[in-house]
Structure formats: structure tokens, C-alpha cells
Amino acid sequence: MTKNELKHWVAALPKVELHLHIEGSLEPDLMMALAGKHQVKLPYANIEEVKKAYNFEDLQSFLDLYYFGASVLKDEDDFYQLMWNYLLRCKQDNVVHAEIMFDPQTHTERGIGFDIFMPGFKRAIQQAQQEWGQSCFLIMSFLRHLTEQSAIETLDSARPYLDDITAVGLDSSELGNPPEKFTQVFKMAQELGLKRVAHAGEEGPAEYVWGALKALDVHRIDHGVRSIEDPKLIAFLIQSQHPLTVCPLSNTKLKVFEHMHQHNVLELLELGLMATINADDPSYFGGYLNDNFFAIIDHLPIEKHQLYQLIKNSFNASFMPTEHKLDWLEKLSAY
Ligand code: ADE
Ligand code: ZN
Predict the structure, then answer these.
(1) What separation in Å is there between the alpha carbon of 331 and the centre of ligand 1?
(2) Residue-by-residue DSSP string for 163-220
(3) How many angstroms separate the CA atoms of 181 and 161, rounded?
(4) Which ligand is nearest to the CA of 177?
(5) Contact 100, 169 (CB under 8 A)
(6) CA gap 312, 322 in Å, rounded
(7) Of the four, 8, 9, 180, 273, which is 20 to 30 A from 68 by CA?
């Protein structure tokens, strides 16, 4: 198959997305429209200027813009529109199931509570479910640059909404904020029946991946590409089959890898790790799920069976009930 044929084939397959920050899907046109609606002053005159600002040196330089961008999200309808736009994209990209992260503290710190964003998210999810059978779970992520006490308060505020939340996660500035800082709140989440994921080994060292596994008892590692630096960790991940939600365009935009041809996802897959492909923050990093697949097709010597394995891994790594998983895996094998 040519690269173009591989791209068409991947685009048509049913897929799962496991690492997507809803605030990172805020496109410049919606950002500008909401800034106008709420009279928020942005340092950009137009959409082109917003896009030009998306040149990042590292994770922190991105996060500064990402939190600033989120400040235009104010009312229930804004959160509905944000979620709805992403779900339309899922339909277009054949993403049949998505496990979507949201950062409550990005909003509660601005005085916007669960009673505003949760109904907005829920309305969009229910509409997509009714209109085309979209399947979705929500992952509530704690901001690791804030204190564990703030995460505990966030978990407390989420109590009335736990029926709509599948898992907790950990994101934001990784270096200097190791997983162990959140041991207690993850334990509390576990006791509430929530699944657990954490960003680790994106900019932080392999040691942080160990921390997420041991102190937070996570089901999946978000990113995890720096695991490769620790052979004992790689051996563990091969044996345990903890999934890694890898985000190729994010990693090159944030300079975890200088160029896509240096990306290690194919190496991780070939070693036998449970690697998956995801978009992270598609509006900021230049593409949605299919675009991430297209980028690795363009720049890595990846073959059809390896792409198939990555897609199959995402179904297996999801929190879907087993019977749904088996249904989808059967449909997938028909391709
Ligand atoms: N929040 C949104 N995207 C993130 C990323 N790639 N790493 C850490 N925190 C994030
Ligand atoms: Zn992320």
C-alpha cells in the first residue's frame, strides 16, 4: 500500500481516542467568537494571529496559552459548543468512542463551577449519542501545579456528577510535580470507584512513570514516551500491558522529539508495549486523531499491520465494558 492508501484506510476504520483535552480542542474561530460574546480582551486581532502564536518551546510555553485561551469559556452554552465541535469531529474521523479529559480547576479558579460546565458537556454528549450513537466517557483531570488539597476539593465538588465521570487524571506542568504529590486524592478517587490515568514521562523522567504506576495505581499512562530511558520500566510495561496514550503531533510541537522521524512510538509498539495514538490538544498542535496517524505514516516506516495494532490497542485500552469492546473488535476485524 502507498502512504496515501494507508491514510485512506486508517481514516475509514472505526477508532478510539483516549487522550484528548477538551479545552485543547478550542479552535481559534470559537475562541474569537466567545471573546466577542463575553467581551474578553485577547492579544490577537484575528484567527491568523492566534495560529501564529502557536509556536511552543516546551510544555510550559504551551500551557500558558492553553489556560489563557480557556478564559473565554464562561457559560453553559460555551461548554456545550466546545464539546459539540469535538464530537462532530469524532463523527468525521470515525472515532466511535472517546475518553475525554476536562480540567475543572481551569474553570473553578475563575469562578465557573461544575454546575456550568457539566450540563454543557452532558447536553452535547447526549445529543451525539442520540444522533449517531457516539460513545463517550469523561476523565476529570487534576492540575498538578496546584496543591493536592485543591485536587481533593475538586473531587469533593465533583461528587454530585460522579455518574458522568469514569476516571480521574493528572495533567499540567510535569517537571517538579511528581505523581507522589497526589497519592491521597487518587486513593480517594479509587475508593469512589473511579478509574485512574496520569500524564507521566512526557517531559518528566521514567521515574515519574514508576511513580504513577506505584503511588497512583493508574490503569494507563498518558504519553509515557520517556519510559524508553529505563530498561526495567520497559520490561515491566511489556509484561503488565499498561497502555501508553501516545500523542505524536503534541510531542513534536512541544519538542519532546525535534522531528517526527525521531518519534519512538513504532519502537515502543515493536517492543511489545500497549501503545495507542491520540491527539492531546488538537487545536494547538495542528491536528485531530486522523492527522496524528497521517503524521506517523508520513514520517515513520510504519506498515499496515502496525497501524492496525495501534488501533486495536486503543479499543483494548479503553474503559468500555467488555461486551462493547468485543463487539467493536469484531467489527474492526472485518476491515
Ligand atoms: N494539559 C493539556 N495538554 C497537556 C499535556 N500535553 N501535558 C500536560 N498537561 C496538559
Ligand atoms: Zn495531555
Answers:
(1) 32
(2) GG--EEEEES--TT--GGGGHHHHHHHHHTT-EEEEEESSSS-HHHHHHHHHHS--SE
(3) 25
(4) 1
(5) no
(6) 14
(7) 180
Grid coordinates belonging to 11: 481514516
CA of residue 245 to ligand 2 center, whole Å: 9
Nearest CA to ligand 1 atom 6: 280
pLDDT per residue, tens digit, the chain (335 aa), is 999 999 999 999 999 999 999 999 999 999 999 999 999 998 898 889 888 899 999 999 999 999 999 999 999 999 999 999 999 999 999 999 999 999 999 999 999 999 999 999 999 999 999 999 999 999 999 999 999 999 999 999 999 999 999 999 999 999 999 999 999 999 999 999 999 999 999 999 999 999 999 999 999 999 999 999 999 999 999 999 999 999 999 999 999 999 999 999 999 999 999 999 999 999 999 999 999 999 999 999 999 999 999 999 999 999 999 999 999 999 999 88
Q: Which ligand is nearest to the CA of 250?
A: 1
Candidates 188, 214, 187, 189; CA nearest to 200 is 214
Q: How many domains does the chain have?
A: 1
Q: Does ligand 1 lie within 6 Å of residue 280's CB atom?
A: yes
- Owning domain of residue 71: 3-334
| Annotated active-site residue in 57, 202, 203, 323 | 202
Q: Give the atom of ligand 1 at the shortest distance from the alpha carbon of 250.
A: 6
- 202 is an active site residue: yes
171 Cβ closer than 6 Å to some ligand 1 atom: yes
Contact 210, 233 (CB under 8 A): yes
